[in-house]
Design goal:
disordered C terminus, about 250 residues, homodimer, mainly alpha, Four Helix Bundle (Hemerythrin (Met), subunit A), globular, Arc Repressor Mutant, subunit A, DNA-binding
DNA sequence: GGCGCCCCAATTGCATGCAGTTTGGGGGCT
DNA sequence: AGCCCCCAAACTGCATGCAATTGGGGCGCC
């Protein structure tokens, strides 16, 4: 059988869940770019809820790593470092290999059809906004994870995929999604054939190539924090005041 | 090098973080057993904070999978199904193989000493409470993860390890921790030697054996929810009222 | 005696209010 | 002009208050 037992969905129709979903989507579609401020008041007003709820939602998103929350400071959309991006992809590769290992040869016809339909949708969106393509590609992987019927796996794959999505939008050049779509098709076909080793390899190289295409190099100019860039230089300096020197505006 | 760059710790000294830590520990040490009720009022009063804070903490723990949160219902300590436990261990194996892969041959002498000291502590606690042994063993794995200096990896390994800890307390017989301690020592030594393949294998089998020793069988009587057990039987029945029938007390 | 219904205490969902902290900008001093 | 300090606006941290929902005990009915 392909499906296990029934699984309770964790995210219900709470107000905070609604806001979480909205913000998550806004973030991964770059409507909110990394570093964007997220004041509780503004969120509350925008979504028609109190600060309490907005705050709670920010807490959840912070737990997912999409938002940075510093005490007494305005929450901001997370700005993962290049190293964190690389780490996220490494984890993602392992998790998604596990997904396809569990799925190989166990998919129903309906599920395969669903996957194909999704890739068709990706294909259809090729002319549109880059952000939408990235989101659809990400959702393909989440769809796969959901088919394992393992709520834990779904959660982790989703989270790490969203994080990768976020970093893609940060470090990626305007990229071509076509080969990714072909790779998705190849994965589906290998899954249908039930070739476990093959599909694990396909997934591995698929994600690896996406990561390598995107995370081209430590690209210090874009996305990295000024203080991080200067850190190694500051190590040479002994004065206490060195940290006060770069009094430049930090994005924004 | 063994360490990467500085890493901000995500969990600061918020009141909610404090409560989270306290509850987490209480849960994995079985002071709060699965199914235990966690009313916001009671928590707030116990920790000297308002319901708002207790509520927020419960939200975080729910995101980690340690607590179940149903709308308009009292929160309870999560009761993972046997299948979820198995899934958690599968994920954990992959994640921790990644950990030791990154760590093999890259540990400083100080780090190795720290690991050995921890295992000594595990050894010392062998006579004490089972729950403490389990916690220490879990913390060994988290300590390893922390040495990768990858905050994301730390977070996921911690979470999934805590979940496993929770299920161990649910399904495990009073178990002997000795072999686990020896396996920990073996892992440290392989890490020091830098034998990547060996240490990945050691970790894999270590976790696998822990899982197999604990998750002996689907043991339907203990831990599984009555409704889950009856679910397949209920499928045969057409009446709407079937779901109301098992009006028995559901764990106390 | 057992079954079902109803009502109330218990509890959650959420908004608002108040106090403490941060920010950033104007004015004064050098 | 440049630097610094101080203050007010903005924002967060948290508690409290009120409406809505639940579930369990008690009562009546079978």
């Amino acid at each position: 059988m392909a499906a296990r037992s029934t699984s309770k969905t964790s995210e219900s129709s709470d107000k905070v869940s609604v806001i979480c979903r909205a913000l998550r989507r806004a973030i991964i579609e770059q409507a909110l770019e990394p570093g964007a401020k997220l004041p509780e008041d503004a969120l509350g007003e925008r979504f028609g809820v109190s600060r309490t709820i907005a705050r709670h939602a920010l807490g959840q998103l912070a737990a997912e790593g999409l938002v940075e929350l510093r005490r007494n400071r305005i929450a901001v959309v997370a700005t993962p470092s290049w190293q964190e991006a690389r780490d996220a992809f490494d984890i993602r590769i392992e998790l998604e290999r596990l997904v396809v290992r569990q799925l190989a040869g166990k998919l129903t016809k309906a599920q395969i059809a669903e996957l194909n339909a999704h890739v068709d949708a990706e294909d259809g969106a090729r002319g549109g906004a880059d952000a939408v393509s990235i989101r659809l590609a990400t959702e393909f992987h989440i769809l796969l994870a959901q088919m394992t019927n393992s709520p834990i796996l779904v959660r982790y794959v989703s989270e790490v995929a969203y994080r990768c999505c976020l970093t893609l939008s940060l470090y990626s050049r305007p990229h071509s999604t076509e080969c990714a779509i072909n790779e998705h098709r190849a994965i589906i076909s290998a899954l249908a054939k039930g070739d476990e080793a093959k599909v694990m390899d396909l997934m591995h190289h698929h994600l690896d190539s996406v990561a390598n295409r995107a995370l081209v190099a430590p690209t210090p100019q874009r996305g990295r924090d000024l203080l991080d860039i200067l850190a190694p230089y500051a190590d040479e300096v002994t004065s206490d005041r060195v940290v006060k020197l770069p009094k430049v505006a930090r994005r924004g």
